[in-house]
Amino acid sequence: MCAPSEQANDRPTDAAREPRGLRPFHVAFPVHDLGEARRFYGEVLGCLEGRSDERWIDFDLFGHQIVAHLDGVSPLERGEALPTTGVDGQRVPVPHFGVVLDMERFEELAVRLRSYSVAFVIEPYVRFRGQAGEQATMFFLDPSGNALEFKAIRDLGQLFAQ
């Protein structure tokens, strides 16, 4: 279940879906080179590093815990194509992960990524323009081929708009 409710069949209340007071999420993902992961997540994205050992590294991604686990071979090195699905006329890579930022931090991140010559899978743009849930979004890959999406929405109350 994605959000708490009193009974299993009840829809979550508006308070249960409210973005205030969100707890940090945790996601673990494979990388083929911890040194490259440390440079990309630490230097390029600006994540602070937490605990680590010879097989994994914790990073603070905008207050969320992400963990790069050494896998040895990247999907790109195995010759695997990244699956995609159509969203708003774009081919969105799946799976992917990222963070919903405010518009100012989104724009700062886009500038930072460009300064490091990060290649975008989907350049920063506004999707669903003029519709419920209008949002800025961008997609790019880490050195191991993991897809990341960062988005921004002016009215966070529209995040789950239908």
Description:
By secondary structure, this protein is an alpha+beta fold. The protein has one domain (23-158): 2,3-Dihydroxybiphenyl 1,2-Dioxygenase, domain 1. The protein is built from three helices and ten strands. It has helices at 14-17, 34-44, 103-115, and strands at 26-31, 48-53, 56-61, 64-70, 84-87, 90-93, 96-101, 120-127, 135-141, 147-152. It has a four-stranded mixed β-sheet, covered by helices on one side. Strand 5 (84-87) and strand 6 form a beta hairpin. The relative contact order is 0.16.
Task: Give structural attributes.
4-stranded mixed sheet; alpha+beta; single chain; disordered N terminus; 162 residues; globular; 2,3-Dihydroxybiphenyl 1,2-Dioxygenase, domain 1
Can I get a quick summary?
With 162 residues, the chain is of the alpha+beta class.
Tell me the strand percentage band. Answer: 35-45%
Overall SS class: alpha+beta
Write the H/E string, N to C: HEHEEEEEEHEEE
Would you identify the CATH H-level superfamily? 2,3-Dihydroxybiphenyl 1,2-Dioxygenase, domain 1
Number of helices: 3
- Which oligomeric state applies? single chain
Shape: globular
Question: Strand order of the main beta sheet, please?
Answer: 1-4-3-2
Rg (CA only)? 17 Å
- CA-to-CA gap between the ends? 19 Å
Low-confidence stretches: 1-11
Give a short account of the largest sheet. 4 strands, mixed
**Helicity, as a percent range:** 10-25%
Number of domains: 1
CATH architecture: Roll
